[in-house]
Give the backbone structure.
Amino acid sequence: MNPKISNVSEAINGLEVLELVKKQKCDIILLDIDMPEMNGFEVLKHFQPIPAPPIIVVSFSESGNYIFQSYELGAKGYVLKGCDIEELYEAISSVVNGSTYFTPHAQKSLLLSMGNKLKTTEKFNSGELDVLKLVCHGKSSKEIGDLLNISKRTVDSRRISLLKKTSSLNTAELVSYANRNGLD
């Protein structure tokens, strides 16, 4: 154990993580993505509107999607479960001191995912992206129109444009496209 680390708590699922953070002051959270009851992404989403201690995701996954999603949800670091203890201490030290720490592979994946998302979002105007996000949340054209203060006809027009730009045949394919490209 590193002498600078004095108090360690453990949670077996995402709900316990949230309870621990409520009960005690945490300087940092090491968070697994694959947990029962509430996965790591859901925990990260929970901290979106409120400040949280810095979070480092510790995962077996080298998936660029996992890394990018963790970053977008506020993770300050990403290391693999098989990393050596020195790398873990380096990640903790960096994040506690206000920086970020992503393994070299995670950095490459993150940059690639950011570039892909930027290219993908350039296809759409802001109105289309607003409609796309609400479509992904299962809203009808009327509900979307009400939420965005636009007519149902405008929503339908944007939906048609989205279908064409993504080469989707229906709403299910459009939602799948949005999920694959981090636009949901």
Observations:
- Residues 104-121 form the longest helix (18 residues).
- The two ends are 41 Å apart (CA to CA).
- The mean pLDDT is 83.
